[in-house]
Amino acid sequence: MKNIIKKMLFLTAAFGTFALMNPCLAAQESEASIVNIINPSKSVGVQIGDLLSREIEIEVLKPYQISKNAFPVKGTNQNGVELNDIKIDSKTNDEKTTYKIKLSYQVFGYSAKPSVMQLPAEHIEVTGGKANTSTPVSINIPAWRFWQASLVPTGLKSAKDSVQPQHKPTLIDLNPHKTRLIVLIAMFVTGLIGLIYINADKQWLPFMNGAFAQAHRKIKKLNKNKANEQKALLYMHQAFNKIHGANLFASDVNDFVSANPAYTSQKAEILRFFERSNAALFSDHAENSEQLINELINLSKTLRNCERGVK
Amino acid sequence: MNIVTTDVQLTDWRSHALKLESEVKKVIVGQDKAIRLMNTAIFARGHVLLEGGVGVGKTTLLQSIARCIGGAYERIEGTVDLMPNDLIYHTYLGEDGRPKIDEGPLLRAGENLSVFFFNEINRARPQVHALMLRVMAERHISAFKREYRLPHMVVFADRNQVEKNETFEIPSAARDRFMMEIPIDIPADRELRKSLMFNLKFQHAENLTKQVESNVLQFDQLNNFSDILQSHIKASSTMEDYALDLWESTQSPEKYGIKMDSVDVNRLIHTGASPRGMGMLLKAARVNAWLQNRDSLYPEDIHAVFHELIAHRLVFNAMYENRRTQLAREFTTQILNTVAVPALAKAA
Fold this sequence. Notes:
The complex is a heterodimer. Chain A is α+β, with helices and mostly antiparallel strands. Chain A folds into two domains: 25-148, Immunoglobulin-like (Sandwich); 207-308, no CATH class. Chain A is 41% helix and 21% strand. Chain A has eight helices and nine strands. In chain A, helix 4 runs antiparallel to helix 5, helix 4 (211-221) packs antiparallel against helix 8 (289-308) and helix 5 (226-244) packs parallel to helix 8 (289-308). Residues 9-28 of chain A have low confidence and may be disordered. By secondary structure, chain B is α/β, with parallel strands linked by helices. Chain B has 15 helices and eleven strands. Chain B has a five-stranded parallel beta sheet. In chain B, strands 3-4 form a two-stranded antiparallel ribbon. In chain B, strands 6-7 form a two-stranded antiparallel ribbon. In chain B, helix 2 packs across helix 12 (275-291). The radius of gyration of chain B is 21 Å and the shape is globular. The model of chain B has no long low-confidence stretch (mean pLDDT 91). Chains A and B meet through helix 5 and helix 7 of A and helix 13 and helix 14 of B.
């Protein structure tokens, strides 16, 4: 017992002497200290490429501070562990500055067998203080160890030998997509056919060989001059006569639209055509041939659309 | 005559012509087309054959028109014993017991005669037809050792196509002298028929005629104005071709693809329209264009008068004569429906 008491006294005296002889440690503890360290939650099974983060909170009393250059440098590689990123957040009040340092490491070291690696210890110098009285202050962040696990067993030569049967991924039900796709394609094709039906001008299209369709094609081919004016009018009259089943004249237009309701909407235009036709064919009123033929092209196209049921 | 004067004349006369129509329509209902055609004939200076049953208002219609035209109106009834001299003079015993001779209905009014109505012309003998047709063509006649001129006379004759007893058919050459044969039918509209039955104003033809304004036209200036009108209305080459096609189609219908439902058209026609007939067709069509306030001839102008101008001129093979009215209507309708304007060959 006496021995024990003697030893304790000795240790106390020794520690006190050491503390008195090392003012640096005393200053370090009082001027800058690590408040908190949060290490990665998982210290085993770490593999090459994994990211490990640790957060350190440091308090530095004023006038001390940590210079930006004092922090660890991003990209530093120590024993196969590289500092991948560093983020520093600091808050200052009247007495102290609190630094929150987030260190992100990536493991590049590899061993065929499980081995111990570590996030490196970091040494951060604290600067500031009064030039004459202050003593150098630094913070030592301790290393943190973990077990590195190999990716494949030792001596594995062919990956194929170790292939494990896998479950098939869950199949997505394609039916709704398929139905939607079919509907969309059908709509697209219908629209396309509709557009072609309405806008195309080819003889092979359905209902494209009616009286006005033929007249329209013939008139379009004519040169727009005085000599062809009568021909263009003739083609239009032929078309009207063909549909009416007899010669059609201005006085018969009411009967014509009654018998052929598809042309009812164009009654005013038809009457105007007969008016212009009479003026061009039977009187000496000069017509602008180009304009007349252009109008006949438009009218024959409109009437062709009526003929085909295109509004 | 300058253009302005002509235009004024055309406008003035047109308003008179339309006034004539409106005046006659006041007393004659349901006969608008016949009134327009008679008006057309007056301005084309052509004689008219009226076709229709008994009591349809032909006489009232004629008297109304005669009142509008002005001048003298004479009338004679066609009977089987009517002789040509009955048109020229009539004899009677005077108060002194001596025989006397007076001018007949044709000469009585002299140059003032504007309308001569020959009622039931087909009951008169061919000798009477011959005289009448000569006067119609020449508009003058010699009698009592002098020449009577009838420059303003227009003849309206009536024939009943249905009744055939004691009648003498007018030969085709004679029919050709008439510009038109106008059908006067009973109006189809029930309201009009009711009105004709129950409205008392239609029961007194003489009073009815008096309601028509007299002397709407100046009968003695009609010939001159007709010449002006005819020279004013122009026909394009397309129109001339069309008229020619129509003429040829009456002669050779098969050439123009004309078909009829009831008969073989190639066997129907013996003789088509005559050059005189076609000349009259164009004259009447020009008047129609003028009445429509145009200075150019349109196909519609020909259509408006085609049947009435052509039907009575056609000579059918004998076997079809008893169906003339119906077949002539069908034939002229088919011509207008089939002969194209502008003609396909000419335009192409």
